[in-house]
């Protein structure tokens, strides 16, 4: 009797240790065949036709290409299902990625056995979102779609509503303090306000951020 063919998986993960750990976990599950793993999008894009994956697991924070553009490029090259496995939880990024028709958006705080279970759900035709991502998606639909702010400015404004200082904003977003100040100046200009308190009031009144989502 011929056994059921294993689903073919390609993994794109820049962190060497995590890539090795995920590769081991996927292979050890016995249900999947890890046909290749890559550190960068550019390498995966070149080989995807040869790999012929059923599933591609992607961290959208890989440094050699914008995550949204990377997914779009992969989907244009080969019709595999895409699963995002990342630490990125920006509402705008989540919305942009989901609009590309991916099958799952899973945060890296998940236990690896649970991650394998998520793969099973997706293989069987389901779609998986981490609980906090599902909450973010619901909140996002209630936001003002005509915001004048960029995705990064929205992230900064959200931190302003939480009372964060310039240095705390810089630390959380992994940017320079001067860069955080530049973003805030641009926010003030776009919202026609002159202080953090005015920016917070404008953000809440115009539904520019979802302050309840972490």
UniProtKB/TrEMBL annotation:
Residues 142-207 form the HTH luxR-type domain. Pfam families: GerE, Response_reg. Keywords: DNA-binding, Phosphoprotein. One of its GO terms (biological process) is regulation of DNA-templated transcription. GO terms for molecular function: DNA binding. This is Two component transcriptional regulator, LuxR family. PANTHER family: TWO-COMPONENT RESPONSE REGULATOR (PTHR43214). The lineage of its organism: Bacteria, Pseudomonadati, Bacteroidota, Cytophagia, Cytophagales. Residues 8-123 form the Response regulatory domain. The modification 4-aspartylphosphate is found at residue 59. Coiled coil: none annotated.
